[in-house]
Amino acid sequence: MAKQSTFRVEDAEWSKTIIKVLEEFRKINPDITANQMLTFLHIGVNPGVSQKKLTELVNVDDATVSRISALLSERGSRGREGLKMIEIKLDENDYRFRVQHLSRGGKLIFDSLRDIMMAFKSK
């Protein structure tokens, strides 16, 4: 038998915070997906992360991460304009590989999301 959920005030506050985070992402692109959000957040907490590592972190295949990264960068993907949230650069230690960082605009978005979460944490 499934456990019945009970409503708690702190659940409502937590839910409101998650909704605010999702609304911030929707301001950027109303069609943004969960995998795109996850990829962005992983790049934010792992500056210089490789595409290979992102495939592990987001738990999707390499081609999907490649498309998401292109969309989040200035390049865009599948005829869609890039969101300019990240920058893809050559790895300074090995020029055969590329690493990903938040762009200036991406850092502003990331900071805004952090502020939302910190406001919830301080309640």
From TrEMBL:
<dbReference type="InterPro" id="IPR036390">
    <property type="entry name" value="WH_DNA-bd_sf"/>
</dbReference>
<dbReference type="InterPro" id="IPR036388">
    <property type="entry name" value="WH-like_DNA-bd_sf"/>
</dbReference>
<protein>
    <submittedName>
        <fullName>MarR family transcriptional regulator</fullName>
    </submittedName>
</protein>
